[in-house]
Amino acid sequence: MSTTTKRTREALNDALREEMLRDETVFLMGEDIGVFNGAFKVTNGLLKEFGEQRVRDTPISENTIVGMGVGAAMTGLRPVVELMTINFSLLAMDQIVNHAASIHYMFGGQVKVPLVVRMPQGAGHQLGPTHSHSWEALYLHAPGLLVAVPSTPADAKGLLKSAIRDDNPVIFIEHEYLYGQRGEVPDDPDFTVDFGKAAIRREGTDVTIVGISRMAVTAARAAETLHSEHGISAEVIDPRTLRPLDLDTILDSVRKTNRCVIVEEGWPHGGVGANLAALIQEQAFDWLDAPIGRVTGADVPMPYSKPLEQIAFPHEPQVVEAVRALFGE
Amino acid sequence: MADPAQPRSLPDPVAAREWLQTMILIRRFEERAGEMYAKAKVGGFLHLAIGEEAAIVGCARALREDDYLISTYRSHGHTIARGSDPNAVMAELFGREGGLCRGRGGSMHMFDLEHRFMGGYGIVGGNLPIAAGFGLASDYLGTQDATLCTFGDGAINQGTFGETMNLAALWKLPVVFLVTNNQFGMGTALERHSANTDLQERGQSFGVPGMRCDGMDVVDTYEVCKEALAIARDERQPVLVEAVTYRFRGHSMADPEEYRTKEQVAEWRERDPIVTFADRLKAEGVIKDGDDEQMDADAVATVDAAVAFADASPFPAPESLYDDIYVLGDQLQGWYSVDERGAGVSRGEHLGK
How many C-beta neighbours within 10 Å does residue B301 have? Predict the structure, then answer.
């Protein structure tokens, strides 16, 4: 399979373009996605290529943009809505949770909502407490939604293509840090990544590290350090989608390594790691040689000041430290 | 709104009779639903539309078959007017498998895709953006379908009202927004919840012209909605219509009605949309004495049958709890729902492969 080196934002752009070429019912809506080419340039050039009918700049009305996407999805279209950050998605929470997630169920399966809502998250750009959070846990909470958290350019492309083709509402969470990161992306326009299939980023025998979104990258770096400096062989798993969840791959790994650390950028209370730790201890308790460790973002609104912001989300040393603690080091 | 001294002409006699028959059916259905609620056959909240039948039938009959109608949590009448089987509507209230939505939605969440009744919605103002989405799809796909979105006077103060008016006007969507002004947002009177009580005017600054109809007069409601739909469909200009009406019963079954006087209710009941329309049809020779009694007997029989059907319909099976959370496709795998209801280790619901 031939590949090309791409940045995540280019891979996402390719996914949107390919799916729009493949299916005329796919269209884009969002704030500044057209003339401005996207706040993070993910939709760069698409207005020029597809025109205003299919690439629609919207007013700043998040709840209504998503709600129109819900309605259009119920009546034959495949809308892809971009929200400028995950913080702004809270303005659309009513349409996402009360409507998009519930409609197929509450109307007895009569109608489907093939809607994708894309949104970037993540700290590190000094955007303070209204533009920097990581909230995959919020959307994981709601049955009826699918949740994707890609961490590589190839997964970003393959999962977005799957999301657009899927008949369910998908919350597609991108990470601002990852937009500029490069990776090999398959050239095949039929390349997709299935939902519910985790990626094992690195094989190992001593500990399983599960990393969510950008933290899959941080976890992989920590695993290299653990190997080279501490002689610990870590297996790194990126679930890629949180719902559906490839729990089997995680459990298989934990049964092999007998230890587990979960790394996420979001808050600790009610987080992805809290949830996953509960599932793992319930189903693999007898295989665990140590308590399940968690490394999370700080339990604070994201501060602006650089030194404070940098200690408010996890970095490689915290992951290394959390793993070593499981070995009594 | 037509001059009360010069009412609009009646439609053809077949239509006029059918409108009356449908209004009577909705009235009898709602009354029986209330009785069934008192008997605990119906749970949750039950919002009845008694008094609003003209506003319901008038707007529903202004629609073409392929047009979309979307409503609120007070929507039993809308879905019946659109053609839904009253048996299935009653069974939905009873929470039964034979209900319109298999008992998943209940009173506030009726839905009937086959008749393009696009749902009752429990969040005040939540249906407005969705209606605009239907309009967007009609526009995008190049169909001639229009959408009529009803909501109450209480919803006009939600943010989605302004957002949706703006977007519908900006994108020239074929949608008629029908604000059913029944004078109260739950227990808060219009003049206590809105600084500007001229509701048909509220869309104008967004570029959505307003019209008003007498929501107690099925003919006026029909004609105004018909005109508004023509503007929306042919000129791609969304319109806001205010139907002035009144609900004779409380907001829901749990409403002591301390916010209004018995005299006010009695005054509006004088204008009962069914009685006034039946009287008019008799006066103009469309029906004769006794015809309306026969229609009433037919409606009662239909409602009797609906109750019998609902009673006989089974409750949903426990193992169907997880049905229809997702559309299960080929590309999904893994665990999509976790089952932690009991002490045992249960993995929940798993997909494919």
Answer: 11
